[in-house]
Design a protein that fits this description.
Blueprint: H1 2-50, H2 58-83, H3 88-170, H4 178-206, H5 209-214, H6 216-228, E1 234-240, H7 248-269, E2 273-280, E3 284-291, H8 298-301, H9 309-319, E4 323-328, E5 334-341
Parallel strand pairs: 1-2
Antiparallel strand pairs: 2-3, 3-5, 4-5
Amino acid sequence: MTDLKDEHNAVIGVFLEPLINILTYLNMVTKVLYIISIVLQLFVALLALRFISFTRIRLSWMLISFGFILMAFRRFIELSAILNTIYAEELSILTGWIGIATSIIIAIGVWLIRDLFFSLRRAEIERKRAERKVLTAIMSTEEKERKRFAEDMHDGLGPLLSTIKLYVNELDSEDLSAGEKKDYVNYVNQLIDNAVSDIRTMSNNLTPRVIHEYGLVSAIEEFCKSISRTQKLEISFKKMGKPTELNKNIEINIYRIVNELLINTIKHAEAHNALLSLSFRPSGLVLKYSDDGKGFDYESNRAKLKGEGINNIITRVNSVDGQIKILSQEGKGFSVHIEVPLK
C-alpha cells in the first residue's frame, strides 16, 4: 500500500515539476516587466514635462506627467506586493486608490489639452485662408498686368502702326512729289523707331531686360536714375554687402517692389527725397525704403487699401516667403522694411 502511494506521488511530481518551473519563470518575467513598465512610465512623465516649454497648455502636461508618475508608483507597489506578501491586502487597497487618482488626473489633463488640438485646427484653417488670399491677390495682380499690357498695345503701339499704314499707302499716290515721298519715308522711319521703342518698353515692363543682362543692383540703380532725371523725386540708393546670385523670381519681385514704392511715392506722397538701401546678408536680402512725404495712418487704413500699390507689394513679398514691416503716420513720411530669405 505504501509502495502504491509513493508511486502515485512520484507520478504527480513528474507532472508538477515542469509546471512549477514554468510558474517560477513567469514570476521572474513578471518582475522584470514590472520594472520595465516603471522605467517607461517615468520616461513618458519626463517627456510630458518637456512639452511644458513648447506649448501654452502647461497645466495639462503637468497633470499628464503627474499621472504617469502615479502609474509608475502603482506598478512599484504591485511589485512590492509580489516580493512581500505580508502586506499584500493593504498594498492592494492602496493601488486601487492610486489607480482611481491616476484616471482622474489624466482625464483632466487630456480634457485641458483639447485646446491645443483646437488651436492647431484653427491655425490650419487660417493658413488655408491666407493661402487663398495670397493666390487671389496674385491672380488679381496678373490680371492687372495683362490689362495694362493690353492698354499699352491699344493706346500706344496700335495708333503708331495705323499711322504707319496710312503713310505707306500714301506713297503709292501719284499726286505726291519726289520730295514729299522722301519726307513721308523719313516720317515712317521715325514712326517705326517709336514703335520699336514702345515694344522695348512694354517688353521691359513684362520682364526687365536690364536684370537679365546686368543684375538686380544695376537694374535698381538705372531705375532710380531715370526717376531722379524727372526732378520729381531725389533718390539716394545704397548697396551694402557683396551681391550674391539670386533666384530670378526673387530678383524680379524685388525690382517690381522698388518700382511700386517709388511710383507710389511720386503719385501720393508729395515727397522730395527718398532713401533706398539693399543689403546682402548670409541669411537673406534686406530692403529698406523711406521718404519724407506727407505719410498716412497705415494701421487705421489697412482695411481700405484693397487693390492699392501697398497690397501689391505685400503680395510680392509673400510670394517669395519674405517678411514686411510698414511704418507710416500722417506728416511723418513712409518707411518699409523687407526681409527675403535666400533660396
